[in-house]
Amino acid sequence: MTGKMSMFDLSGLPQLLRLMLDDMARASTLYRPTHHWQYAVNELIEAINNHGVEDFRSLPSCLKTFVGTYAFPDYYQTPGRYNGMNKVLAEKFPVETDIDKSQRTTTHSKFDIRLSDLLSGRLHALSDYRVFLASYSDYPPYTDKASESKVGNPLEQFIFNDRRYSRSFLHYLLGLNYLKSTCSPKDINIVLEIGGGYGVLGEILLSDKRNDCFYINVDIPPVGYLATYYLQQVFGASEIGDYSKFRKCSSIEIDVIRKKYKAIVLCPWQLPHLKGQIDLFVNYHSFAEMEPDVVDNYCRIVSGLKPRYILLRNLREGKQVMKTFGRYGVKMPVFGSDYDRFFPSYKIAGVNTVPFGFKTEDNFHSEVRVYRKPEKYDDSQPI
């Protein structure tokens, strides 16, 4: 890591996380946090050091980096910010609602409820949920019974038809539906994700026994550590292989380890040691937060694992370029069209922004891209 990481005492951190961080300091720059994430990593480490991990999905540093929410800025942290708007629209009579009562008081005017639904992000979440229902196809990977856990004490989670959904959860469900609509995939058994956050995709795939899936999440610490914590809390520690189990392995054989675990969480510098073949590769958002040479390196390694399908969701226009050194942003953006170059042996099966992706308020396109391996696959690409 090129930024200074030890601005505070790390001795109180969990042993697994300390091990990850120590090894990251010695890893190639291709596998360490790029500029956009260097300072975010420091903030996350400090938050874990001060608050632990039990409530990580409510910590401000996590919310602004990898735990996405639908709500307007500061809606949950400073709800009084919007009180004036509520008072203008308030008409005093009770209205019964179907939303989780922990997210709303029990008595509101109709206008107040509509405004609350807008500000809290519930309207946006409901819109995504409706697209998910309308586009769902009843074949593997099955996701119709998926419901997110409450591990990490999420600040935002919506309940529709007695199932729980976060923004990340719904985004993955939409992406999987789009994959199925464009490729009609069969036998997706081994799934690799780079930058999988706290393991949402793994939870979706592994929680339904009809799916015969093995999930590999590769992420930088401390995010990879939080993914380990989350998945082990959901499925049990014995079912999820952590970084330390494979730290000294020069070869990580997929067909061998999937017999022991439902999922494993690795760090980026372990990726070149992964051996075997995967069915699906996924990247959501994080490629856009990296520099082009880092993304190109990852894509070369992934191509060597010969996935049959590739599912991406990133910004078509690329991440915003940093304005001043030391702040968030990238030095050089990765554009949506660049993935055609990064995966030259693959055929694009579909590109979509609406309804499976999203057009942001500042006119950026969160774009879903699906690639498939052609029948005559060119595996001569150097790795």
Helix and strand arrangement:
Elements: H1 15-26, H2 35-51, H3 60-63, H4 83-89, H5 110-120, H6 122-135, E1 158-160, E2 163-165, H7 167-183, E3 190-194, H8 200-206, E4 214-218, H9 223-235, E5 240-241, E6 252-253, H10 254-257, E7 263-266, E8 274-275, E9 280-284, H11 292-304, E10 309-315, H12 338-342, E11 347-352, E12 358-359, E13 365-372
Parallel strand pairs: 3-4, 3-9, 4-7, 5-7, 6-8, 9-10
Antiparallel strand pairs: 1-2, 10-13, 11-13, 12-13
Helix pairs in contact: 4-5, 6-7
Uncertain runs with pLDDT below 50, 5 residues or more?
1-6, 92-99
Helix proportion:
25-40%
CATH third-tier fold name of the domain at 166-372? Rossmann fold
Sheet/helix structural class:
alpha/beta
Structural commentary:
The protein has 383 residues and is α/β, with parallel strands linked by helices. It contains 12 helices and 13 strands. Among the domains are: 79-120, no CATH class; 166-372, Vaccinia Virus protein VP39 (Rossmann fold), CATH 3.40.50. The chain has helices spanning 15-26, 35-51, 60-63, 83-89, 110-120, 122-135, 167-183, 200-206, 223-235, 254-257, 292-304, 338-342, and strands at 158-160, 163-165, 190-194, 214-218, 240-241, 252-253, 263-266, 274-275, 280-284, 309-315, 347-352, 358-359, 365-372. Strands 3, 4, 5, 7, 9, 10, 11, 12 and 13 form a 9-stranded mixed β-sheet that branches. Strands 1-2 form a two-stranded antiparallel sheet. Strands 6-8 form a two-stranded parallel sheet. β1 and β2 form a beta hairpin. α4 runs antiparallel to α5 and α6 (122-135) packs parallel to α7 (167-183). The chain is globular and about 60 Å long. It starts with 14 loop residues before the first helix and ends in an 11-residue tail after the last strand. 43% of the residues are buried.
